[in-house]
């Protein structure tokens, strides 16, 4: 997966936006103001930090060397994924899981906003 493909996939979700609150080099992908992915898209190797269920986070780290505790993030709820070392389909699944987890944590009225066209 290329940086452009990762960016496009993150932005393909309903109400997803890209912002740069920390620096111009760090793409921060949000849904209704809540972060679901962060990446230095110009870095090599390409990495993305994703929100995850704490139990899944530990299991993923044990199973894949390319998945580490979130860099500069809450290690219980975030993993940093080295994209180049995993199949694209799996990376897309992890990004989608992160988005879904963040959406599930939104207040009901916010989630309902996402369901409207």
From TrEMBL:
SUPFAM superfamilies hit by this protein: YjbR-like
Pfam families given in the database record: YjbR
UniProt keyword list: DNA-binding
Protein's UniProt keywords contain Transferase: no
Gene3D superfamilies associated with the record: 3.90.1150.30
GO molecular function, one term: DNA binding
Record InterPro entries: YjbR, YjbR-like_sf, YjbR/MT2646/Rv2570-like
Domain of life: Bacteria
Coiled-coil intervals: none
Entry-linked PANTHER family: CYTOPLASMIC PROTEIN, CYTOPLASMIC PROTEIN-RELATED
Protein's recorded name: Predicted DNA-binding protein, MmcQ/YjbR family
């Amino acid at each position: 997966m290329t940086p452009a493909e990762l960016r496009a996939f993150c932005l393909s979700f309903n109400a997803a936006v890209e912002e740069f609150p920390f620096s111009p080099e760090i793409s921060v992908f949000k849904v209704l103001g809540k972060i679901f992915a962060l990446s230095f898209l110009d870095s090599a190797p390409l990495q993305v930090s994703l929100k995850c269920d704490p139990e899944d986070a530990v299991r993923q780290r044990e199973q894949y060397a390319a998945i580490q505790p979130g860099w500069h993030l809450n290690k219980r709820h975030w993993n940093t994924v080295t994209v180049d070392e995993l199949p694209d389909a799996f990376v897309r699944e992890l990004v989608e899981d992160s988005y879904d987890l963040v959406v599930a944590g939104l207040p009901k009225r916010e989630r309902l906003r996402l369901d409207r066209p």
